[in-house]
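Same chain as my last thread, 84 residues:
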Amino acid sequence: MENSSALLLRFFACLVRHRIEILGIACTNPAGSPVYEMELSVRADADHVRRAVKQIGAFVGVVEIDYRMEEDDAPQVPSSRGGS
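reply #2:
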């Protein structure tokens, strides 16, 4: 199985490949838990995000991806689900 560093690099390569600009990242790991939670703030158009979410969901170890789309000067829309 891939180590977490290699998986993280593949994840970021996927974002770059789909022209997704990373604005911020936060990662948490509750004590004793093997699960990491990552929150990313990104900028991209809707088509690039949809393709990236589909590809990211195929990565080993990714259980769920929540994403929220915002339009400039528009209210935030509810979260959508993607992933495996």
